[in-house]
Amino acid sequence: MEATKSIAIYPGSFDPLTNGHTDIIERALGIFDKVIVAILHNPKKTGLFTVEERKELIRESLAEHRDRIEVDSFDGLLVDYAEQKGARAIVRGMRAMGDFESEFQMAMMNRRLNRDVQTVFLITGLRWIFTSSSVIKEAASFGADISGMVSPVVHQRLKEKLGKE
């Protein structure tokens, strides 16, 4: 009899994927058999990259983990999506205390909606504590060197997208 695989969902906008996100994904792979990187499709928000572009960037950036990650997008309730995918956990990265209140509130609501899906908080590595997609996009838009904060493929696509080549 084959053992049940432990599956976790790592949700986010990933616009774009940062090295902080990659750090959380790689650490989650140390805990779970499979991690589904799930992009929330929000038609009310317009990102720099389309959902399909983000999925492609994530797949390319994490190619060495392709056998243990899945890249997907969803809309609706996260706990419903987790149940549909057979995931028992939601992974959330936290950078600073400021993240805690909103993350805790979301975790409690998800628990209220589905007690079988647990939320696991991973503290971002110190190197990435001040790294966020929005800060990286802003810095890149002014031509700053963000190469150490994102994968080479994301760095290249950001330069192309922002016309900073």
UniProtKB/TrEMBL annotation:
It catalyses: (R)-4'-phosphopantetheine + ATP + H(+) = 3'-dephospho-CoA + diphosphate. One of its GO terms (molecular function) is pantetheine-phosphate adenylyltransferase activity. Substrate binds at S13, K45, L78, R92. Its EC number is 2.7.7.3. It is found in: Cytoplasm. Its cofactor is Mg(2+). Pfam families: CTP_transf_like. Pathway: Cofactor biosynthesis; coenzyme A biosynthesis; CoA from (R)-pantothenate: step 4/5. Keywords: ATP-binding, Coenzyme A biosynthesis, Cytoplasm, Magnesium, Nucleotide-binding, Nucleotidyltransferase, Transferase. GO terms for cellular component: cytoplasm. GO terms for biological process: coenzyme A biosynthetic process. Residues 9-138 form the Cytidyltransferase-like domain. It comes from the Bacteria. ATP binds at S13, F14, H21, G93, M94, R95, E103, W128, I129, F130, T131, S132, S133, S134. The record marks H21 as: Transition state stabilizer. Homohexamer. Belongs to the bacterial CoaD family. Reversibly transfers an adenylyl group from ATP to 4'-phosphopantetheine, yielding dephospho-CoA (dPCoA) and pyrophosphate. This is Phosphopantetheine adenylyltransferase. It comes from Desulfobotulus alkaliphilus.
